[in-house]
Design goal:
By secondary structure, the protein is α/β, with parallel strands linked by helices. The chain has one domain (11-329): Aldolase class I (TIM Barrel). 34% of the residues lie in helices and 19% in strands. The radius of gyration is 19 Å and the shape is globular.
Amino acid sequence: MSVGKRKSRIIYGPILSRRLGRSLGVDVIRNPSSRKNCNFDCVYCQLGPVTDKIQSPEDAVGCVTCSEVVEGIRHYHRSIEDIDYITFSGTCEPTLNLWVGEMIDGIRDISDVPICVITNSSLVGRKDVRQNLAKADLVVATLVSGYEDTFQNINRPASGIHLEEVIEGLAALSLMDGCKLSIEAMFVESNEFPGNSSDREISRLVEVLEYIDPDEVEVLTVTRPPAESSLHAVDEKRLKEIASYFDGKFGRNKVRLVLQGIKRGRSVLKHENIEEEVYDLILRRPCTAAQVLTSLGIEENTLSPILEKLENKSKIEPVREGRYCYYRAL
């Protein structure tokens, strides 16, 4: 089946992650009208803008089933050897699928690989969502500011989603037994609105983080082409200043400064359809050619004609971000 006619697979990757090592992705929502389903329209999102934001899990269309996910993981176990995490992420906000908790239980029955859920934190105010998240080994939850206006400017949530409920939900999740909670503090600058790396923003964010009391705080900035061209990364010097300030407040063992670049050996992966695997990876996460090579464990002379073919089919496009050329799905 051609890439243009098929549905993307639920399980994709592995992705070589700055935070999680080699991560096998799980995408838990399908929607024929869009490859991206979310209740946020984050200005920094690597997948581009969201035209129709989903309000709640009850509005989500195309949720995959627990059996589909478990069977997908079971199949991948036969073809890949070196996974650090199984990660719920992809083209959607995974907590919009209320079966995530059952999926985690099903995966544990067949795999001892740690499970991570990456969430935009939009639904942590719901008890059922927190119960699902608490079953994971690690939850990486986004929090960009302690101010409502900054939250609205950067995350651009669906109507009815407010920062106070997000903060209270994260604080409640941190008290639950089970998962480790890591807060992803994504810092950005913009030509159109104030960013979130000023002293005022950092001071307020520290107050909020002290209230939430997570296990870890990740300090990072954008590295891939963002949804809005007016957006740009916070420079490394400022990131290090922020991380150092957080160290003094929370302790060095609780703060991670996530910088671009990760060195890792190639995956040991038995391929079934390399063109599909390349497209599935780029669909969920814009990648440089080097990142695709390392993630999927293939050679440059194999990848180059695949990228050219996908580009000629208008399935992907090259996009420059700084000194790097990324391939992004169209």
